[in-house]
Amino acid sequence: MIILATIIIDPFISEVLSSINLNEYERKAYLSILEEGKVVARNISRKSGIPYAKVYQTLDALIDKGFILKDDGRPKKFYAIDPKTSFTRRLEFLEREWRSQQSLREMNVEKILPSLVLLFNETKPQQKTEGGVWKIIGLEEIFNKVDTLMISVSKRILITSNNSKLINQLLNRVYRPNLEIIIRSQKIPENYKDITFIKIPVSNSSTICVIDEYAMITIFEVKNNYTAVLTKMNEMIKSYLSDIEQGGE
Amino acid sequence: MNREENDLEKIKTGIPGFDEIAGGGFIKNRNILVQGEAGTGKSTFSMQYLVEGIRQYNENGLFISLEYDPIFLIEDMKAYNWPINEYTRENKLSIVAPKGGLENPSNMNVDDLINFIFEETDKVNAKRLVIDSLNSLEFIFSKTENYRKEMIRFNSLIGDLECTTLLISELHNNIYTYLSHGVINLFYTKVGANRLRGIEVRKMRGTQHSSYTHAMLIQDSTGIEVLPTEIDFNL
Predict the structure, then answer these.
(1) Which of A1, A42, A115, A243 has the most CB atoms around it within 10 Å of its CB?
(2) ipTM
(3) Domains of chain A, residue spans
């Protein structure tokens, strides 16, 4: 008796039972039955404090979940199944249920994803494109775009800037062995090997990064807010030719 | 007697003459409907069932009054010289109204009522239970989505309290006539210039009972007495 009284208030046991989806009444009823052995519903109600009107539905739920059984006859008597068996079965059931739910979730996500991606592409605020020209807002987004462009880089990176901090951040992202990197700036940074520096007058208003001469990112900074314009030459030409075909200029 | 009757344990009501016409009494832990029009003696019959249970069989009793103040009920029963106050003091008998009193019974739902009955039964360790009345219960059940289902649930939960329960009702056709294990009809019928009392065991599952309507007396100081003689109100 004393041992069970401890179990009832043991928060860890309560937490574990809760984690396998036993609600408060089910936990109390189950532990009461474990202590009492074979017991009628009204005694479970007395012992556990579960309202009598709720005790039968609680016990039926425990039967459904495989923790107890009941005798036929009136009044019905309830008794526990060996916990080794009932808990093993319960865990197996929950695992099956989780897999089934996960499978359903995956299937449903797959169904809705194309329309969500479409919606995202139509409305995403960070990047706006028109004829091979993108507007990118936010430094993180700009760097993400640089990372994407660097996947297909093969020859040369040209950075033109007077912003030393931004030069360093870009170098950290674009540096590759055997890749020609040229930096044009009025301030020559130190501690970089294999990089060509050209000291020339450069505008302070923007940082320009040209990648393989097919993409150019011009980054503007106003009070620590960064915006960039990305121009992809081939797509710009493609868009231009398409406009001509459709009778545009 | 059939086989089922032999197997079922019975309790005697202790009401003079009644157990004889009921095939030995009520089947233990079953629910019985006691019905009749106003003035037929339903409350007296039920209270006597509780008093005799304590006096003769050492079975404590609980009277749940859903529509009549327990104080008035006790006063009404004073004529019979039953030791109601003594039994109440000794915690053998309890006569109670729902929590919050009778003024606003509509606030009570089915679960509240079931829990209330369970708690009160526990307090006196009742083996005999009277619920007065079915008509008040019907009012509570009428607020639920599924009247019949709730009535069946109520009947089952009360049945598992291990009390032999009398449910008092005005005479009318109701679902409980079918759900209950027994039905007792009480009469107070005008014959000529007089009124005569009668009692009939209309239904008692698993029991060979009298099929006659028997004459019944309500005596000052002793209460109900059922006579073995049948009565014909058409005479």
Answers:
(1) A42
(2) 0.76
(3) 2-89, 127-245
